[in-house]
């Protein structure tokens, strides 16, 4: 375990949320629809409150940016939180969900934790100190070619009509590139943990949010991988909900995915002419 005061705060807060999630998994609880395609459960809201209360006890002057309560406070220390990433999975008793917490200091992610209760896995990272799962150091895969890549992807509702993104997906599953597979599992932070430990060679998503990827971005980088947006630029964690796009890989296949996205964009542009 990395010795870092802020990481320990995040680990303890995430564990409190994970306990609530485990106790209520596959039970009945209230669910509300924020939109026709987005939902929030009473469990999300309870976990959000518990996490913020715990962090405030230790760091009362820090601010928050969470999925359930948005921006809360200002200052150079900001906690970016998703108390339940993978709500749709959780509500439907599919055990692929997690708690994810990151601390941003002066615009840079300093520490992060991803707690996956159903797997009893806690991923931790601090900038410059490596990436770990249950205290054991992890590293990204060594897959060198995109044709041998095993990938994950995120598909939020806007992606269903995004021609460039859909063209990228088609290119990666068979023409012209046949990867080992592209999986859509419905929990972006958990996907990033799998990249960090080398199970997935990369993930991509065009409509994600800061709280879904802040901790996982640092985890992948500290595990030896590469993370950018689809334009090969650093991620902007001040973006709003579903305003971020991301490519996170082992580094070896990163440029190849970006190249395929550029080719997909050019192909769509030609079809529109």
TrEMBL record:
The keyword Amino-acid biosynthesis does not apply. Keywords: Carbohydrate metabolism, Hydrolase, Magnesium, Metal-binding. Belongs to the inositol monophosphatase superfamily. FBPase class 4 family. It comes from Natrarchaeobius halalkaliphilus. Its cofactor is Mg(2+). Mg(2+) binds at residues 67, 82, 84-85, 212. GO terms for molecular function: fructose 1,6-bisphosphate 1-phosphatase activity; inositol monophosphate 1-phosphatase activity; metal ion binding. It catalyses: a myo-inositol phosphate + H2O = myo-inositol + phosphate; beta-D-fructose 1,6-bisphosphate + H2O = beta-D-fructose 6-phosphate + phosphate. It holds the Pfam family Inositol_P. GO terms for biological process: inositol metabolic process; phosphatidylinositol phosphate biosynthetic process; signal transduction. This is Inositol monophosphatase.
């Amino acid at each position: 375990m990395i010795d870092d005061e802020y990481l320990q705060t995040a680990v303890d807060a995430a564990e409190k949320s994970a306990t609530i999630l485990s106790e209520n998994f596959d039970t009945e609880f209230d669910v509300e629809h924020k939109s026709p395609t987005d939902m929030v459960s009473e469990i999300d809201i309870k976990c959000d409150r518990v996490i913020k209360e715990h962090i405030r006890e230790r760091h009362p002057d820090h601010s928050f940016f969470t999925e359930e309560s948005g921006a809360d406070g200002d200052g150079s220390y900001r906690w970016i939180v998703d108390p339940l990433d993978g709500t749709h999975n959780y509500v439907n008793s599919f055990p692929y969900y997690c708690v994810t917490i990151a601390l941003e200091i002066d615009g840079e992610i300093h520490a992060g934790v991803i707690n996956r209760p159903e797997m009893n896995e806690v991923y931790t990272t601090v900038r410059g100190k490596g990436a770990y799962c249950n205290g054991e150091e992890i590293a990204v895969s060594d897959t060198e070619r995109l044709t041998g890549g095993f990938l994950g992807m995120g598909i939020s509702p806007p992606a269903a009509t995004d021609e460039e993104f859909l063209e990228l997906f088609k290119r990666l599953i068979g023409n012209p590139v046949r990867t080992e597979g592209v999986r859509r599992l419905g929990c972006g932070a958990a996907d990033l943990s799998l990249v960090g430990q080398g199970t997935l060679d990369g993930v991509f998503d065009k409509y994600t949010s800061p709280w879904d990827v802040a901790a996982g971005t640092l985890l992948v980088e500290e595990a030896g991988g590469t993370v950018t947006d689809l334009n090969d630029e650093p991620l902007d964690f001040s973006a709003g909900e579903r305003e971020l796009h991301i490519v996170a890989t082992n580094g070896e296949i990163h440029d190849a995915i970006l190249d395929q996205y550029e080719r997909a964009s050019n192909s769509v542009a030609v079809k529109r002419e």
